[in-house]
Amino acid sequence: MNLRTPRSPELEEALGPGAPIVVFDRVSLAFDDQVVLDQVSFTVIVGHTKIILGASGAGKSTILKLVLGLICPDSGVVWVNGERVDQLSEAQLMAVRTDLGMVFQEGALFDSLTVRENVGYKLYEETDLPLDDVNRRVEEVLGFVGLAEYIDRMPSELSGGQRRRVAIARAMAIKPRILLYDEPTTGLDPITGLSIDNEIIKLRDLEDVSSILVTHQLRDAFYIATHAAVRQDGQVTIVPAPPEKADQAEFIMLRDGRIVFEGSASELRRSGDEYLRTFLS
Amino acid sequence: MEGWLTAWTKRALLEVQTYVRLLGAVGRALVTPPFYVHDVVEQFDAIGVGSLTVVVLTGGFTGAVLALQSGFTLDQFGARAVVGRLVSASMVKELGPVLTALMVSGRVGSGIAAELGSMAVTDQIDALRAFGTDPVRKLAVPRILAGVGMVPVLTVIADAVGIAGGWAVATSQLHVASSVYWNSVVEGLVIQDVWMGLIKPFVLGFVIVSVGCHVGLRTTGGTQGVGRATTHAVVAASVAVLAVDFFLTKLIISLLY
Predict the structure, then answer these.
(1) Is the pLDDT of residue A202 over 80?
(2) Fewer CB under 10 Å: which end of chain B, C or N?
(3) Closest-approach residue (CA) in chain B for A71
(4) Residue numbers of the domain that contains B98
(5) Is B18 a domain residue?
(6) Helix (H, G, I), strand (E, B) or coil at A151
C-alpha cells in the first residue's frame, strides 16, 4: 500500500538525498506589536532532524504552524516539499499537507473518536482506500508505537504518554515525508518521555522521515540527536549514533524570535555563548 | 473614550467580517466536494431528535398557558369560544417559530459553541487543517444544514403540540366544546399565516447554528474561553433570533399579505 503522495520525477530528483525539503528564508512575523519571528532563515535536509530550542514564547511552535501553512508570514519565503507555502491558498495548502504529519502539544486527539478512528482519520475520511487496508495500516502503526491493544479505547481513557504516542501514530499513518513535533515530551515523566524519543528516532531512521522537533527539553533533544535506530534480526534497537550521524541532527536556538545559534549537538555543547550556557545549565 | 470607541468599532467590524467570511466559505462548501454526508446525518439526529423533548414541552406549556390567559380575558367580551383562533394564530405565526428558535439557541447554539470552542483551544481544529480537512466543511456545514433542516420540523411539532395544549386547557378548564375549539383553530388561520410560520424557522435555524459555529471556531483562551464562547453564542443567537424575527415578519407581511 503506497500512501505517499506521488511527486513529479523532476521534484523527486530535486528533493533527493542532501536536498533541502524545508526552507525558511528571512521569515518575519508579528502579532500586533509583538515580534514573534525576526528574519529567521534555516533549511531542513531530506532525512535529517532539525531541533528547535528556546524558552517559552520564543516563536518555536509558530515555525511549525508556518510550515503547515496554518498561519502566513508577514515577510519572507517558506518552501515545503517543493512548494512555496506562504503564497498558497487554503485549498492549495490541503495538497501540501498530505505529505506532512504533525504531533501537536498535548496530542490534540479528536475527543469524540476512538483511537482507531483518530489514527486512521485521514485514511478513513480523505482517501478512497479499502477499509481493510486502512484497518491494517492503523493496526500496523499502533503496533509500531506499542499501543495495539488500545485500538478501541477513547482518548479520555489514555494516559498523557499514551495520548502522545497515539498522536505520533496518527501523524505517521499516512507515511508523510515530513513530521513536525511540537513539544512531544513536555509534561511527561522521564521514562515515558524516553519512549516518545525512541519513537521519533525510529521514524527518522527506519521510515526515512525528515523532521522538525520543537522542544525545550534538552535531555530529549540531545538523546534524539545522539542516538540511532537499527534493525537487527527483525528487532529494532536504539543505539548511540556514530558522530557523523549525530551531526545530521541540527540544533537551532531561538531567542526573542531570532536565531542565536545553529549547529550540531557537539557544537552546541562547546558553545561559549552566555545565553546558551545559561539555557544548557 | 475615543480610543475605547475606536477599539470597540474595530472589534465589531472584525467580528462581522469573519462571520461573513464564514458564510462565504459555507456557501462554497455547499456546492463543491468533498461532502461529509455521515456528519450531516449525525447532526440531523443531534440537533433535531435531540431537541425534540425540550421543544415539545415548550410548545405544549406555551399553548396551554396561552389558552388559560386569553380565555379569561376573552370572557370579559363574551368571546371565550374563539380561544382556539387566538392560540393557533399566535402559535403558528409567532410563538412557535420564536420559542422553538430560542430553545434551540439554548440547547444547540451553546452546545455547538462549547464543542467547537473546546476543539479550537485544544488544537483539534488546527489538527483537522493539518490533515487536509477543511473545518468549515467538516464541522460547520453539517451543523448548519441540520439547523436549517430541523428547526422548521421542530417548529411544526411545537405548533401542533401547542395547539393541542391549548385544546386540553380550553376543554378542561374553560369548558369550550372540542368541536368549537378546533373550528376556531382552523378559522383563525389563513394560508399566509402558515407560510409565515414555515418560512421563519428556516432563517432562524440558519442564524442560530451559524452564530454558534462562528463563535465556537473563534474561541481562544483555554477553558475560560470556552465558557465565554458558550455564553456569547447563546446571547448573540437569542438576540439575533428576536431581531431577525422582527424584520422577517415585516418583510413577509409586506410580501404576502
Answers:
(1) yes
(2) N
(3) B126
(4) 35-256
(5) no
(6) coil
pLDDT of residue A258: 92
C-alpha to C-alpha distance for B239 and A142, rounded to whole angstroms: 48
- 8 Å CB contact between B206 and B144: yes
Q: Which residues in chain B are contacts of A105 at CB distance < 8 A?
A: 123
Chain A residues touching B123 at Cβ < 8 A: 104-106, 108
Residues 6+ apart with CB under 8 A from B177: B171
Whole-number Å distance between alpha carbons of B36 and B33? 9
| Distance between CA atoms of residues A43 and A54, nearest Å | 18
- pLDDT score for A101: 92
Residue type, position A235, single letter:
Q
- Fill in the amino acid letter for B91: M
CB A216 within 8 A of CB A186: yes
Cell of A70: 496554518
Cβ–Cβ < 8 Å for B99, B197: no
Mean pLDDT of chain A: 90
Specify the fold of A19-91+179-281: Rossmann fold (3.40.50)
Average pLDDT over residues A159-169: 92
**pLDDT of A86 over the 80 cut:** yes
Domain ranges (residues) in chain A = 19-91+179-281, 100-175
Q: Tell whether B132 is covered by a domain.
A: yes
pLDDT for B39: 95
Candidate from B34, B119, B132 with C-beta closest to A97: B132
Beta strands in chain A (DSSP E): 20-31, 34-45, 49-54, 75-80, 83-84, 100-103, 178-182, 210-214, 227-232, 235-240, 250-255, 258-264
B2 in a domain, yes or no? no
* Distance between first and last Cα of chain B: 47
With CA atoms as reference, report the closest residue to A275 among A253, A258, A243. A253
Q: How far apart are CA B116 and CA B119, in angstroms?
A: 5
DSSP 8-state secondary structure symbol assigned to residue A70: S
Q: Look at chain B and report how many structural domains it folds into.
A: 1
Q: Do the Cβ atoms of A105 and B123 come within 8 Å?
A: yes
- Hey, of B36, B38, B112, B131, which one would you mutate to test binding to chain A, going by the most A CBs within 10 A of its CB? B131
Within-domain flag for B28: no
Residue A10, pLDDT above cutoff 80: no
**Cα separation, A266 vs B212, whole angstroms:** 52
Q: Which residues from B are below 8 Å from A70, CB to CB?
A: 126, 129-130
Task: Say if the Cβ atoms of B126 and A65 lie within 8 Å.
Answer: yes
Task: Quote the Cα angle for A268-A273-A275, to 5°.
Answer: 100
Q: Residue B229's pLDDT band (boundaries 50, 70, 90)?
A: very high
Q: Which amino acid is at B190?
A: V
Judged by DSSP in three states, A174 sits in coil
Its ipTM equals 0.86
